[in-house]
Amino acid sequence: MSIVPARAWALERNDRRLVFASGPDGAMFAETGAFDVTAHRHPVWKVVLSPDGLVETRPAGRRPVASAGVIVPPQLRHTAAASSSYTALFLDPWRLRPELGLTCLDRAAVRRILAALDRGAAPGPGADLAAAAAELTALTGAAHRLDPRVAHAIAESTRADPPAAIGSVAADVGLSPPRLRALVRASVGVPLVQLRTWTRLRTAVAALHDGSVAAAAASSGFADQAHLARTARSLLGRTPASIGRSPTRQAR
User: Region 213-231: what's the mean pLDDT?
Assistant: First the structure.
């Protein structure tokens, strides 16, 4: 189920290398250096892998956990930090079992997932996101199958150009718009409107290498640069400006 077109970029900034990749099987952001992000809540699964360090995750109101890797479920408000270079994978909420919850990964599991990405020791934009998703499924168990009506609604409502109106999507599957929204939320645990917002955010991050943050906001359906920044802080715990927008090399 494709949400945004496949895009990838890499950039060098001071002593760091940053890589972003996005496609039908999810998204990836990798950075050669330690990081920390403020409290946020994303509508997707996040998998943070640090092959040579530790990832500390602090869910709201709970004790922090530290491990070589962590799987953070959708809608969990938390902060996160990595002590060294890391790779973060973002998978749609129906890709993993909903009962999985916050899960720590040992170093062997981290290396298995990174090996599936087939990018060697240094982050690269040619990541095999489908292979990484398959490896995660092998480690954690198969996800539940989506109701075909839900799958159709998500695909149509979150396509990049342009997303279909909820009324027409509901008519396609023989449901009222409120009933379709309720069915999507019950099936994937995330409101359809948040999935739409996540699609726009992924599209904006993919466009950062093309120019300014303002241009990325305009091209991805945000009202303005401030709207994009607020959304990024809410869903990622960092702003687009903190990611950077002047890559030395575009991979594809």
Answer: 93
Residues 74-104 pLDDT 10s: 999 999 999 999 999 999 999 999 899 999 9
Backbone φ and ψ for 205, nearest 5 degrees, come out as -60, -40
Return the structure tokens found at 225.
């640069």
77 with 39: CB under 8 angstroms?
yes
Q: What is the 3-state secondary structure (H, E, C) of the chain?
A: CCCCCCEEEEEEECCEEEEEEEECCEEEEEECCCEEEEEECCCCEEEEECCCCCEEEEECCCCCEEECEEEECCCCCEEEEECCCEEEEEECCCCCCCCCCCEEECHHHHHHHHHHHCCCCCCCCCCCHHHHHHHHHHHHCCCCCCCHHHHHHHHHHCCCCCCCCHHHHHHHCCCCHHHHHHHHHHHHCCCHHHHHHHHHHHHHHHCHHHCCHHHHHHHCCCCCHHHHHHHHHHHHCCCHHHHCCCCCECCC
pTM, 2 dp? 0.91
**Mean per-residue pLDDT of the chain:** 88
